[in-house]
Structure formats: structure tokens, C-alpha cells
Design brief:
Protein name: Tetratricopeptide repeat-containing protein
CATH architecture of the largest domain: Alpha Horseshoe
Biased composition (Acidic residues): 495-512, 737-748
Oligomer: single chain
Number of domains: 5
Radius of gyration: 35 Å
CATH topology of the largest domain: Serine Threonine Protein Phosphatase 5, Tetratricopeptide repeat
Number of strands: 4
Shape: globular
Strand content: under 5%
Organism: Belliella pelovolcani
Distance between the termini: 87 Å
InterPro entries: TPR-like_helical_dom_sf
Strand order of the largest sheet: 2-3-1-4
Number of helices: 41
Keywords: Signal
Length: 871
């Protein structure tokens, strides 16, 4: 006992002396190396690995695209698991502070750099990895730091810095196998960012040689197989898809590897169509593929398209859209393909628009297809808006000319047709249920299956019952004792009623009663006054013109364009859009080899001073930015002549400029100056007529205001007028010679007003506030469930730049829907994560403008546009 006590007494001084972080003795180093490595470093590294596994688990692979080299880092995931990074930083910081003589100090610095990287503190991360490269004595850690530094530069698109790091590493010797694996994988990431497929393949192929991780090998083999397949190298792709099935990969990746392997090997070239179809049918029936049935049907539809079986392909795609798949992105591709078929085969732009709407709901803004669909959808949105305006208004105007009895008959027949449609849909559902299997049919005879013997299992019977009910009693709410005059006595407990209301709110299915309009609601839409008819006619006039213009310039459909513009001129011969309609008809007839001269003659006869007339008379005119610059210089000369009262010479220059450069951004300014000269040289009536015509046709708001004030000054309708006739602040700016290099006209603002485009709602926070706003996404979800349960809104967040983190709610079909959301948000949304000022600073933005904002990173620049456009 005394001996043991003596040993303890002797050991204690050694222990306390070892705890010192200053003395560089063997005992000290042993103690600090051990505690630093197996305590702080180990635990910190575990936290970071846990986060990386979460990022990997949360990522939903899109097998229709080449898989990403690295799993994308979702800022929402980082925010949700910020505590892991906080703990990792604290542990590594303590290891550095408490164990300064440990050889694991640099390793802990590396982990702190990784924490900064995942938190998007890129400057701090870059400084840490640069510090390690310069100061660390651990060669392997220096190499690993340089490789991570290269990945950050790729993320930031600092490609000159990437090349510098690559050159630096190429001169380094004795890079170990693990670092070589990370190096070649990061090089593949770099080549991918440069769209260098050959370089990416080479880098991934080299990376395979430096890893023994079977799961990692499986994924890289799959990526290589996808790349080879897209390059048309089917034999190599086939072998790699087979290799990708090794290493116990996730079932979904294994499924796609098997599917794509069969495609490149046999299916795409097979002449035995029945065998290929049988292959897809077997995949569909396989119980293991229960959550992948939509994929199987989609792939079979693509095969049927190659066989020119369009109808069968469409049926398969519709079935695929109805399957309960586990990947929303797949649904996006299904709807996108349906839209593509509607456009390419049927020219059904309306169906294509609605298919693309559905596709967009299933893609995320970071998905490659999202931007492509958004760009394509804009003109389709415009088409449907104008098409449906024509269909609706034309019908309403025709019905308004009928007698009240005839109007009631039309409403009755419409309701009857809607009832028949719903019955057909119910019958189709019942037919599907009747094919659900022999066991289900056997249960039906026992009263427990989906047979027709049980009323609530018979969709047709329920639909007919609902229709009969609404005929007799109208659209009554779903509640008990609805026939009682005093319903307060109907329930014995308010809690029961409250529970029923909650259950009703949770149901997202539209009530059958709401699908069938009442006769009163239909009749109320019919215009019953001359003012209402005129309003509908004005909308029709605009819709015919815009649709005709859209069909010619955007859809390249001259025949359909001619039909709509001819309808415009026939139905509305005094339309203010007549000169431009003639001009488009001239172009359309010219393109189809028709009688273009007819419209050229009409322009010259009816609108000799129109810029569209000048344009058809000068077919070899200069256009683009050169025309804009030349017309700007001519305008400046004419304006100086006008100020010097040399009106005749100014008019000559204006007319010659309009003839030589008829359609530029200066056209409205040139025309207004010409009108002002008319006020000096022509009689009062001529001047007034020209002013009125100009006001009807110009789309420039500032010039429109000036012209209106000039008309007020002429007619004396308003006592207080603005003096603008002599002080027209529209002098053209001289453009630089560099502008000549670009034939595209320069936009005054990088953002465009597009109210019919899909919009998103944005909350902007500073990084510090964003880190504290842990519950914001959850609060938004609760807000949506309570107020927008049927809108399928999605939330997310990202770092726009170093100063701003943004939270996004999407999608909204147009600006009007987005404004409704923001109003409700300002009125009802409550959270502790943001202040009232942050709420007030939220804004709306179209998808196209969001892409521009994401490039420019300037929030205030967009806010200025937003205040002018949306408020």
C-alpha cells in the first residue's frame, strides 16, 4: 500500500507537468498528441463526417442527368445542422488552444477550414488552407489543403486561381494515394465546370485507380457510363454500367445501371419490338420496382416514340404521371416530355403550357431543366392568356345577343355536359378499380372489397348521388343536420364540430359540388350592358393582335398569325394596332409566298407616315445597334434645328431618318419631335390628330405623358399644364464606338417587366440574422399549410453573396398570385426569426429576373426596379 501511494506521489508531478502546453518535453508531447488526436480532433472530424453523410443522404439523385461529381451542398441542410459545425469548430479550436505543441494542431486547422467551407465563409476557408500550405510541415496535409482550396475556387468560378493551384500541385512529388484520389476527383469537377467531357472522363478514370472504397467506385463507374453513353460509346458504357452494379450500391442506382445497360446493349438496336416491350412490362411487374414504376413507364414511352407510336407513348406518360414514384424530379421529366409531344406533334400550345406548369412544380431551381422550362414557358403563358381571352370573350359576347330564355338553356346544357363529364371520369376510375385483382373481386362478394355492392366503394354511385344532391339542395357545406333551421342544437359538443372542421380543412380534394357551377353563377358572367360588351371587345381586340404577333415572331406560325390578324382587322377595323398588324401581315405573307404587296399598299395608302410603312418601303435598311446609333446622331441634329426654330430643315432630317432607320428604340422620340414640328408648321386640326394618334400608339410612358400634356395645352381641357413642348428632355446620348461591336440593342435596365411569368417570393437576411433564423423555414411551412394548403408551395434558402442570405418561396404562376401571397404574408405571417423590417423588405421577382439577380448579386439594384414595377 505504501509502495502504491509512493508511485502515485511520484506520478502526479509528471502528470501535472505534462498538462503544460508550453514545455516541449517527450512526456508533454506524448500527452498532447494523444489527447489532441483522440479527443478533440477525433470528435470534431466525426461531426464533419456526420454532416457529409447527411448531405449525401438528403441529396436526391437525378438519373436522367449525369450525376454530379460531388454531392451538392444544400444551404437548407447546413442551416438545419448548424450545431454540428458549431461543435466541430469549438472542439478543434480547443485542441489548438490547449495542445499547442501537439503535432495535430494543423489537422485541427484543416477541420476549421472545412467548417468555414460548409458555412460558405469562403474567405476564411481560403485563408486557412493557404496558411496550412505555407506553414504546415505535414506534406500530406498540405496537399489535401491545396486540393480543397482548388474545390473552393471552382465553386467560386475563380478559374485562374484553379489553374494556378493545378500547376502548383503538378510540381509536387510524393502525393499519396488518398490525396491523388481527391485530386483527380476534384479535377473531374473542374473539367465538368468547363464542359470538357474528355477531361472529365480522364480524371474520373484516374480517380478509380486510387480508391478501394467499393461504394465510391460504383458511383464513379456509373458517372463514367453515363458520359460514355452520351458520347455514343455504347460498348464502354455497357461494361461500366455492369461495374456500377458492384459494391452494393443503393437499389435505385442499381436499377438504373441495369436499365441503361440493357438500353445501350440491346434495347435501342433491337428489331424484336415485342421482346423489348416484354422487358419493360416485366420490370413494371417486379415488386422490387414498386416505387420506380413511373420510371419504367417513362422509359417505355421513349421507346414507343422511337417506333413512331405517339399515341401509345402519350398514354404511357399519362400513366407514369399517375404513379406514386419516390422522386419528384422524374415527374418533372414526364410532364416535360408530354409538353414536348404537344409542341412537336400536335402544335397544341395550350396543353404544352399546362404540362410545363406541372413540370416546373416538380423541378427545383437548381435543376438543369428548370431554367430551360422557365425560358420556354414564358411565351406559352402569353399564348394561353390571349387564346383563352378570345375563347371566353367571344362566347360571352355571342351569348349576350340571345334572349333570356335562350341564355338559360345554354347554361342548363353546360351544367348537364359537366355532370356527364364527371360521370365519365368516375366510370373510368371504377373501371381501373375493377381490374385491381382477383382477390379484391372475391372480397367484393363478401361486402368488404371494392365491388359495387357497397355504396361508398362505388365511384359512379357516389358521383351520381353527389350530382342529385346538388340538383335538389344546392352547394351546401359538408356537415351533419344541415336541414335544421337552428343548427346550434345539432351537436352536443362544440369540440366534435371543431374536430370535423379540422378534418375538412385537411382534405385537399376539391368538392364535387364546387366542380359544377350553378346556373346563377353562369348567367352572372354574361354581359348585360353596352359598357360590359365594350370592355370584352377591348380585351378581344388586344388579344387578337398580341396572339397574331406571338404566333409569327415566337412560334414561327405565319398561317395562324394571319388568321388572328385578319380577324382583328375584320372585327375591329378602327383598331389603333392596324399599322403594325398590316406590317406583320406583310411579313407573314412574304414568308409564305403570299400577296405581301397588298399590305404594303394598304400601309402606304392609309398610314403614309407610319414607321411600319417606312420599313416596308426600305427592305434593305440597316438594323440593330448600328441603326440605333445612327438614328441617335440624326435625332440630335434635328432637335438642335428645332430649338433654333429651323422647323422645315428639322422635319426633313426626321423624315429621312425614319425612312432609313424605321424601327429602332429612337422611333418614338423621332415621331414625337415630328409631331411637335407639326404644331409649328401645320394647322391646328392636323396637329391635334397627330397628337391623338401618337398617344394611342406609343408604349413609352414618359413620352406618352409628354404627348398628353401637349394635347391638354392645345385643347385647354386642364388649366394647370406642364410646360413640356419647348423643354423636351429627351436628348440622345452619344454611344461609344464599342457599342458597334454588338448588334443587340442595349437595355436601359437589366430587369424586365414580365407579370405573366412564374414568380418567386424572396426574404433577404444578413448572414448573422440568417444563422439565428433557425425556425424560419418551419414557420413558413406552417403558414403555407394554414393559408395555401392547395398551392404546393416550396421553400428553400441560399447565400446570394457574402452580405445577403435569401429565403425563397415558389412557385407562383404570375405576379398577381405572388402579390396575393405577399399581402397575406404581411398581414398574417408571424415568426421570431425575422423582424418587421425584414418582412417589409421582402419582394417578388420573376424567374428570368431572378437569374439576372443571381448573376449581378446586387439586391439594391433590383429593389429599385421592384419599387417602380410592383408598388
Amino acid at each position: 500500500m505504501k509502495t502504491q501511494f509512493a508511485c502515485i506521489i511520484l506520478f502526479l508531478p509528471l502528470l501535472f507537468s505534462a498538462c503544460s502546453s508550453e514545455k516541449n518535453t517527450f512526456t508533454n508531447r506524448l500527452y498532447h498528441n494523444t489527447t489532441s488526436r483522440y479527443n478533440a480532433y477525433y470528435l470534431s472530424n466525426q461531426k464533419i463526417q456526420e454532416l457529409e453523410n447527411i448531405i449525401k443522404k438528403n441529396h436526391k439523385e437525378d438519373f436522367s442527368q449525369v450525376l454530379p461529381v460531388f454531392y451538392p451542398i444544400d444551404s437548407a441542410t447546413i442551416d438545419q445542422h448548424r450545431e454540428l459545425l458549431k461543435d466541430a469548430r469549438e472542439l478543434s479550436s480547443k485542441a489548438i488552444d490547449w495542445h499547442r505543441i501537439s503535432k495535430w494542431v494543423d489537422d485541427n486547422y484543416y477541420l476549421i477550414g472545412m467548417v468555414d467551407y460548409y458555412q460558405a465563409d469562403f474567405d476564411d476557408a481560403i485563408n486557412t488552407f493557404k496558411y496550412l500550405n505555407v506553414n504546415s510541415k505535414d506534406r500530406n496535409l498540405r496537399h489535401r489543403s491545396l486540393i480543397q482550396l482548388m474545390r473552393i475556387f471552382i465553386d467560386l468560378k475563380s478559374y485562374d486561381d484553379v489553374v494556378f493551384v493545378i500547376d502548383y500541385l503538378s510540381k509536387e512529388s510524393r502525393i499519396n494515394k488518398e490525396n491523388r484520389f481527391h485530386l483527380f476527383k476534384t479535377l473531374a469537377y473542374y473539367y465538368d465546370s468547363q464542359q470538357d467531357v474528355e477531361g472529365k472522363i480522364g480524371a474520373l478514370d484516374r480517380a478509380l485507380n486510387y480508391t478501394k472504397d467499393k461504394k465510391e467506385k460504383s458511383r464513379i463507374n456509373f458517372i463514367l457510363a453515363q458520359l460514355y453513353q452520351r458520347e455514343g460509346l455504347d460498348a464502354q458504357a455497357y461494361n461500366l454500367y455492369n461495374e456500377a452494379q458492384k459494391g452494393n450500391p443503393p437499389y435505385e442506382r442499381s436499377f438504373f445501371a441495369q436499365l441503361y445497360a440493357q438500353q445501350v446493349a440491346e434495347l435501342n438496336r433491337s428489331k424484336d419490338v415485342r421482346r423489348v416491350r416484354s422487358y419493360y412490362d416485366d420490370l413494371y411487374k417486379d415488386s422490387k420496382n414498386k416505387e420506380l414504376k413511373d420510371v419504367v413507364l417513362y422509359e417505355k414511352a421513349l421507346f414507343e416514340l422511337k417506333q413512331d407510336e405517339k399515341e401509345e407513348a402519350v398514354n404511357l406518360l399519362i400513366r407514369a404521371a399517375q404513379e406514386q414514384g419516390n422522386n419528384p424530379i422524374q415527374k418533372g421529366y414526364i410532364y416535360q416530355k408530354l409538353a414536348e409531344i404537344s409542341l412537336d406533334f400536335d402544335k397544341d400550345y395550350r396543353a404544352a403550357k399546362y404540362y410545363l406548369d406541372s413540370a416546373l412544380m416538380n423541378f427545383r431551381p437548381i435543376d438543369p431543366a428548370f431554367d430551360q422550362i422557365q425560358a420556354q414557358k414564358g411565351i406559352l403563358d402569353d399564348y394561353v392568356t390571349h387564346f383563352e381571352t378570345i375563347s371566353k370573350n367571344d362566347s360571352l359576347i355571342r351569348i349576350s345577343k340571345l334572349s333570356p330564355e335562350e341564355q338559360e338553356l345554354v347554361a342548363t346544357n353546360f351544367i348537364k355536359s359537366e355532370e356527364e363529364r364527371l360521370m365519365r371520369e368516375a366510370a373510368a376510375k371504377e373501371k381501373n378499380k375493377s381490374n385491381s385483382g382477383i382477390f379484391d373481386n372475391l372480397l367484393a362478394f363478401g361486402g368488404r372489397g371494392s365491388g359495387e355492392s357497397f355504396y361508398f366503394d362505388n365511384a359512379v354511385a357516389m358521383q351520381q348521388g353527389a350530382i342529385d344532391f346538388t340538383r335538389n339542395w344546392g352547394n351546401r357545406p359538408l356537415q351533419d343536420n344541415w336541414r335544421r333551421s337552428n343548427q346550434s342544437f345539432a351537436t352536443s359538443s362544440g369540440e366534435v364540430e371543431e374536430e370535423r372542421e379540422i378534418a375538412e380543412e385537411e382534405s385537399n380534394e376539391e368538392s364535387i359540388f364546387e366542380q359544377i357551377p350553378t346556373k346563377e353563377s353562369l348567367l352572372s358572367q354574361i354581359p348585360n350592358s353596352e359598357e360590359d360588351v365594350n370592355r370584352l371587345n377591348n380585351q378581344l381586340e388586344i388579344a387578337y393582335f398580341e396572339l397574331g404577333k406571338l404566333l409569327f415572331f415566337d412560334f414561327k406560325e405565319p398561317e395562324l398569325s394571319i388568321d388572328n390578324l385578319e380577324s382583328l382587322i375584320t372585327s375591329y377595323p378602327n383598331t389603333i394596332k392596324k399599322p403594325e398588324a398590316y406590317y406583320i401581315l406583310y411579313l407573314a405573307q412574304k414568308e409564305r409566298g403570299g400577296n405581301a404587296d397588298l399590305y404594303s399598299q394598304r400601309l402606304n395608302r392609309e398610314f403614309p407616315e407610319s414607321p411600319f410603312t417606312f420599313s416596308v418601303n426600305n427592305p434593305d435598311r440597316v438594323s440593330g445597334n448600328r441603326a440605333y446609333i445612327a438614328s441617335s446622331n440624326q435625332y440630335k441634329i434635328a432637335y438642335e434645328l428645332y430649338q433654333n426654330r429651323n422647323y422645315t430643315e428639322a422635319r426633313k432630317i426626321l423624315r429621312s431618318t425614319l425612312e432609313e432607320y424605321p424601327l429602332t428604340r429612337n422611333t418614338d422620340k423621332l415621331l414625337l419631335l415630328d409631331v411637335m414640328i407639326s404644331g409649328k408648321l401645320d394647322d391646328r386640326d392636323r396637329y391635334k390628330t397627330r397628337l391623338e394618334t401618337y398617344i394611342q400608339n406609343t408604349e413609352n410612358p414618359e413620352l406618352l405623358k409628354m404627348a398628353r400634356n401637349m394635347l391638354i395645352a392645345l385643347t385647354g381641357e386642364k388649366p394647370e399644364i406642364e410646360k413640356v413642348a419647348e423643354e423636351l428632355p429627351i436628348e440622345a446620348k452619344t454611344d461609344t464606338e464599342a457599342d458597334l461591336e454588338d448588334d443587340e440593342e442595349v437595355e436601359e435596365s437589366p430587369y424586365k417587366e414580365n407579370p405573366n411569368q412564374t414568380h418567386i417570393f424572396v426574404i433577404v437576411l444578413e448572414p448573422e440574422k440568417s444563422r439565428d433564423a433557425k425556425s424560419l423555414l418551419g414557420d413558413l411551412e406552417s403558414f403555407h399549410n394554414a393559408n395555401f394548403s392547395n398551392s404546393r408551395l416550396r421553400t428553400g434558402n441560399m447565400n446570394l453573396n457574402r452580405e445577403n442570405a435569401i429565403y425563397i418561396v415558389s412557385p407562383f404562376n404570375n405576379a398577381e398570385k405572388a402579390l396575393e401571397y405577399r399581402n397575406k404574408f404581411m398581414e398574417s405571417f408571424t415568426t421570431e426569426s425575422i423582424s418587421g423590417e425584414d418582412k417589409a423588405n421582402s419582394f417578388l421577382i420573376s424567374i428570368e429576373n431572378f437569374q439576372e439577380l443571381n448573376k449581378r448579386k446586387n439586391i439594391e439594384e433590383y429593389r429599385n426596379f421592384y419599387k417602380k414595377t410592383y408598388k
